[in-house]
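Side project, low priority. Logging it here so it doesn't get lost.
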Amino acid sequence: MNNRYIAAIALSALLGACSNSESPSAPGAPAPEAPPAASNVVVVSEADAAYNEGKRMLEASTSDVELSNAVNRLLQAAELDSADAKVLLAKLYQEGRGVEQNPGQAVNLLLAASAKGNIRATYELGKAFETGSGVEKNPGEALNNYLKAAAAGDRDAMFEVAKAFESGNGVAANKDEAIGWYRKAAGAGHPTAADSLKALEAR
């Protein structure tokens, strides 16, 4: 067998192997299209859009008219069930800013937002029950809300839980529990928890 014949057989075998390694396609068929790239577009709900706009308007307001417009936009967001809008409106009702002061309405808004899982609303409810703002003062209920918010990672709530255990407000005083919660609050970045922890440990 001459060398030319052997080379022809080897080339034929090589071409056949290459052909078999590729997926078959009909002659003249277009190459398969690459899958579309994942979209990076973030869809914002109507409620969130209204809240974001109302918040921006509120922060930029320099007149009573602008403040009123901001409040109206936040009210629209709240009607669309924005929990964040309800929390912000609750603060305005507590302060009487842009609306007639109404602590009771503030509590209603916080209750609605907390029921939707808004952790900041739960914390603010704790403050309302602790101080008796818009609701009858109830240290035990204040602590329940603080504990719920703290369990979800709210550092301010962790600090309030620590204070409650230190002072015995709404619960039996417990130094070890207070120390533990101060440590959690400090670990979460609360600005004064470390100092409170140091002072309590020194006693």
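Brief comment: The domain at 138-203 is CATH 1.25.40.10 (Serine Threonine Protein Phosphatase 5, Tetratricopeptide repeat).
Revisit when time allows.
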